[in-house]
Amino acid sequence: MKKYVIEREIPGVDKMGQSDLSGAAKTSNAALAQLAPKVQWVQSYVAKDKTFCIYLANNEDDIREHARISGFPANKITEVTGMIDPTTDRG
Questions:
Q1: Burial of 12 (0-12, 13-18, 19+ CB in 10 A)
Q2: SS3 state at 47
Q3: 37 vs 82: CA distance, rounded Å
Q4: d(C-alpha 30, C-alpha 82), whole Å
Q5: pTM of the entire predicted model
Q6: DSSP strand E in 1-91: where?
Q7: Is 48 exposed, middle or buried (CB count within 10 Å of its CB: 0-12, 13-18, 19+)?
Q8: Is the pLDDT at 26 greater than 90, yes or no?
Q9: Contact indicator for 31, 66 with CB cutoff of 8 Å
Q10: CA distances, 10 to each of 21, 47, 57, 82 (Å)
Q11: pLDDT attached to residue 58
C-alpha cells in the first residue's frame, strides 16, 4: 500500500469538541469498513479550518471513494514518497 497525506478543508474543525471529533471518527470508520482492506486511516492532525490525514491506500481513487462515502472532502491528496526525521543525518 502507498502512504498519502490528505488535506481536508473543514471550516471550524479546530473548534470542534471531543464529542464532534468522536462523531467524525465514527463516520470515517464506517466508510473505512466498507472499503477494507483497500484503505486504512493512520492518524489525523487538526489545524485551523483543516485536517491533515495520513492514510494507507492502494491508490488515490480509493482515497476519493472514502471521501465520497464519508462526506469529508479530500481537497488535496499527496502521495508520500519518503520520510526524513532528526535521525536521518546519521545515514
A1: exposed
A2: strand
A3: 23
A4: 29
A5: 0.92
A6: 2-9, 39-47, 50-57, 76-80
A7: exposed
A8: yes
A9: yes
A10: 12, 10, 22, 27
A11: 96
**Quick check: helix, strand or coil at residue 5?**
strand
CB 17 within 8 A of CB 81: no
pLDDT of residue 91: 80
78/54 Cα distance (integer angstroms) = 10
Express each pLDDT in 33-83 by its tens digit.
999 999 999 999 999 999 999 999 999 999 999 999 999 999 999 999 999
**19-42 b/e with 16+ CB inside 10 Å = b?**
eeeeebeeebeebbeebeebbebe
**66 three-class SS:** helix
With H, G, I as helix, E, B as strand and everything else as coil, classify residue 41: strand
What is the C-alpha radius of gyration for the chain, rounded to an integer number of angstroms?
Answer: 14
